[in-house]
Design brief:
5 strands; about 25% strand
Length: about 130
């Protein structure tokens, strides 16, 4: 892949992250990483204090990327993965995966229903 192609991919995902953040003030972070957990793009909501240190982010993304690769193997039996919602005491994490690319979105815990949010994010994300 040449530098121009890579720049196009990064720009597309950065734009998607910005659009995702514009959906709701309850979205803290929207990021994209590859099948090895390497960040392609990411954006944190202005004024939001990050929960993870840079080292913790690398570990988190690598762990999630590994899990997503393993989940991909079951997709022939179960059908294509739509999304994964991970709930923690402090935040919720929404994951969307296709073709080695994962969108990682953190959401404030106070949000009551994620159904509308998920639908809006799916419209933005067009993974090829």
């Amino acid at each position: 892949m040449n530098n121009q192609s890579w720049a196009k991919i990064v720009t597309r995902h950065r734009n998607n992250c910005e659009k995702i953040l514009s959906i709701s003030k309850d979205i803290r972070y929207a990021g994209v990483f590859n099948e090895y957990g390497r960040t392609i793009s990411g954006k944190i909501m202005p004024g939001v204090k990050p929960i993870f240190s840079p080292d913790s982010v690398r570990h988190e993304f690598f762990a999630i990327a590994s899990m997503m690769r393993l989940r991909e193997k079951t997709s022939k039996t179960l059908g294509e993965l739509e999304f994964i919602l991970i709930t923690h005491k402090k935040i919720n994490v929404l994951l969307f995966y296709k073709n080695g690319i994962t969108y990682y979105i953190t959401i404030n815990k106070k949000i009551k229903s994620t159904t509308t949010l998920i639908r809006k994010i799916k419209k933005i994300i067009t993974l090829v």
